[in-house]
């Protein structure tokens, strides 16, 4: 546990000693504000809830989460520090969890900094705070899902750009897996298979959460996504950490 | 003396290339083992297996009795490792980096502060203590990474080319540091620089194509040189071409050849194996009335032995 915190702390400080963290947070806040107010017409809608704010989150994470995850392992490989890290008494699983937590903390911090949205709706109306809290929780869990995919993709390469593009691609597939484009493609397969593919859609799983409906299965879904992809990341690193 | 690092039939392939081939050796406390071999001989791969970074295909290695396959964490606890590329996190300061490694190794508070102070002093890093790693010169980078390997005062040190990229003064410093630590540690270092083997190593192993081809002291290695015990001599008052055949005819001489010392003509006389060649040459010169201006008994050259042992046909 001590080692996980040490590595996560180092990684998090790394985000802040380079401009990355500040640029990321600024981009996240500006884009989420832009989409909510200018595209969704938040004020004109006249609804005192944040569902029009959360609806953009899957799309923001699609390219912001890979920006955070792309360097996590690719940079360790490129600079050779992976050899240093894994000749210290550190387990691969510990390091994977630590780096994931660091990225997740940065995403979480960005989410927390959207608090003016909550203040705005509270002034304008009488929003359901439970619903808003659920939205934030769901958004954080979904961000973790994107990030876990990113960790795994980053472990595959020493090139950050490749890591970014792979992550965005895989995340895009997961986001839209219940869309007709993808399901038509799988038409030939058995029914249970298309259902399974459709059920892993990030959008579908996030949709009820953002409306404030907490279904355990949706929360479990995002947690499972995180666990499965982080496990895959551990397996990849174990097999080819020296590659 | 107890065995601290041991490898047993270590084998590792990358695709069709066998990097390490049935390699077995052991190193005791107090020994400094020089690990020699041409580029691509398998030195770094062997080190990566001993440090439990990479698993061997077959065979195994133990460090302080811990098996690298069964108990990699205990292995990593007991050793300090300087990788060949001397990597560290670029944006971190030297102190921050050392503190990170110390914390991972379970140190904190005063213990960690003292450990950092100790290695900063040992590796002469005080002038760059607060500087970020990526802005350091090559020599400082390597010494920072060396400091990282020493922070927990490990009983076993694995150093992959510890003096690479250092200037002659820094090389001397690092060798002195290694020699100072040698008595109560077990140190394995790889190098291309054969003078380094002379300077710090108590034993030298040569590997080529992943196989062990020599394991002895630097002095024994040197004695395999054809020049070992040969005498180089320069004269005044006689042409070397005249002197050479006469010298070659000496009972203790195998043969004599014309050579050059610093651009001046000289004769090198190879011994038959018995001692006393230099005395024989001096006597002969006095008899003939040749004036010796220079006489030098060769100790044998490591690089020549190295080339002989690792020469590959057709390459």
Features:
heterodimer; A: 243 residues; mainly alpha; 0% strand; B: 315 residues; alpha/beta; six-stranded mixed β-sheet; four-stranded antiparallel β-sheet; 14 strands; 35% helix; 30% strand
Task: Give an overview in words.
The complex is a heterodimer of chains A (about 240) and B (about 325). Chain A has 14 helices and no strands. Chain A has helices at about 1-15, 20-40, 40-45, 50-55, 55-80, 80-85, 90-110, 115-125, 130-155, 160-175, 180-185, 190-200, 200-210, 215-240. Chain A is globular and about 55 Å long. In chain B, the strands form 3 sheets. Chain B has a 6-stranded mixed β-sheet with strand order 6-7-8-3-9-10, with helices on both faces. A 4-stranded antiparallel β-sheet of chain B has the order 2-1-4-5, with helices on one face. A 4-stranded antiparallel β-sheet of chain B has the order 12-13-11-14, with helices on one face. The longest helix of chain B has 14 residues, at about 110-120. The model of chain B has no long low-confidence stretch (mean pLDDT about 85). The interface of A and B includes residues 79, 83, 90 and 242 of A.
Oligomerization status of the protein chains:
heterodimer
- How are the strands ordered across the major sheet of chain B? 6-7-8-3-9-10
**Largest Cβ-defined interface:** A-B, 21 and 26 residues
Strand content of chain A: under 5%
Q: Give the SSE order of chain B as H and E letters.
A: EEEHEEHEHHHEHEHEEHEHEEHEH
Count of beta strands of chain B: 14
Contiguous helical run count of chain A = 14
DSSP helix fraction of chain B? 25-40%
**Which band does the percent of strand residues of chain B land in?**
25-35%
Name the structural class of chain A: mainly alpha
Give the rounded overall mean pLDDT of chain B.
Answer: 87
Our measurement of the CA-to-CA distance between the termini of chain A, rounded to an integer number of angstroms, reads 28 Å
General form of chain B: elongated
The largest sheet of chain A, given as strand count, sense and whether it forms a barrel, is: none
Average predicted confidence as pLDDT of chain A: 88
Silhouette of chain A: globular
Percent of residues of chain A in helical segments?
over 70%
| Amino- and carboxy-terminal Cα gap of chain B | 41 Å
């Amino acid at each position: 546990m001590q080692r996980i915190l040490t590595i996560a702390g180092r990684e998090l400080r790394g985000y802040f000693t380079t401009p990355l963290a500040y640029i990321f947070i600024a981009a996240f806040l500006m884009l989420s504000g832009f989409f909510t107010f200018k595209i969704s017409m938040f004020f004109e809608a006249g609804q005192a809830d944040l569902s029009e704010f959360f609806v953009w989150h899957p799309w923001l994470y699609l390219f912001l989460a890979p920006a955070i995850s792309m360097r996590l392992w690719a940079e360790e490989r490129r600079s050779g520090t992976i050899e240093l890290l894994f000749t210290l008494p550190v387990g691969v699983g510990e390091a994977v969890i630590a780096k994931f937590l660091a990225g997740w903390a940065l995403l979480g911090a960005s989410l927390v900094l959207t608090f003016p949205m909550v203040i705005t709706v509270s002034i304008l109306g009488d929003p359901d705070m439970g619903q808003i809290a659920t939205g934030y929780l769901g958004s954080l869990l979904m961000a973790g899902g994107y990030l876990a995919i990113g960790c795994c993709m980053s472990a595959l390469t020493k090139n950050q750009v490749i890591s970014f593009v792979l992550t965005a691609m895989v995340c895009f597939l997961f986001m839209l897996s219940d869309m007709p484009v993808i399901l038509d493609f799988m038409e030939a397969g058995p029914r249970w298979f298309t259902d399974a593919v459709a059920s892993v859609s990030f959008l579908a799983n996030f949709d009820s959460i953002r409306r404030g409906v907490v279904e355990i299965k949706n929360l479990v879904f995002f947690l499972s996504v995180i666990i499965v992809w982080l496990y895959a990341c551990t397996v990849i690193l174990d097999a080819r950490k020296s590659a | 003396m107890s065995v601290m690092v041991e490898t047993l039939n270590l084998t590792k392939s990358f695709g069709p290339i066998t990097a390490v081939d049935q390699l077995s050796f052991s190193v005791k406390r107090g020994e400094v083992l020089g690990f020699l071999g041409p580029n691509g001989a398998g030195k770094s791969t062997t080190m990566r297996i001993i440090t439990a970074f990479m698993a061997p295909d077959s065979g195994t290695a133990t460090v302080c009795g811990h098996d690298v396959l069964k108990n990699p964490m205990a292995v990593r606890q007991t050793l300090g490792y300087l990788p060949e590329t001397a990597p560290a996190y670029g944006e971190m300061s030297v102190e921050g980096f050392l503190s990170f490694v110390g914390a991972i190794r379970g140190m904190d508070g005063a213990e960690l502060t003292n450990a950092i102070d100790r290695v900063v002093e040992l590796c002469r890093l005080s002038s760059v203590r607060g500087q970020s790693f990526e802005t350091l010169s090559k020599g400082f980078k390597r010494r920072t990474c060396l400091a990282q390997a020493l922070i927990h005062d490990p009983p076993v040190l694995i150093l992959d080319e510890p003096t690479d990229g250092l200037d002659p003064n820094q090389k001397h410093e690092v060798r002195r540091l290694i020699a100072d630590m040698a008595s109560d540690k077990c140190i394995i270092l790889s190098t291309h620089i054969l003078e380094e083997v002379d300077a710090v190593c108590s034993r030298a192993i040569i590997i080529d194509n992943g196989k062990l081809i020599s394991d002895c002291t630097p002095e024994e290695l040197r004695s395999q040189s054809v020049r070992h015990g040969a005498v180089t001599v320069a004269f005044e008052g006689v042409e070397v071409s005249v002197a050479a055949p006469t010298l070659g005819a000496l009972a203790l001489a195998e043969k004599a050849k014309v050579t050059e010392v610093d651009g001046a003509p000289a004769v090198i006389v190879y011994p038959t194996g018995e001692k006393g060649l230099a005395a024989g040459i001096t006597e002969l010169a006095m008899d003939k009335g040749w004036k010796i201006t220079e006489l030098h008994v060769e100790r044998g050259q490591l690089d020549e032995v190295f080339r002989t042992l690792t020469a590959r046909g057709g390459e």
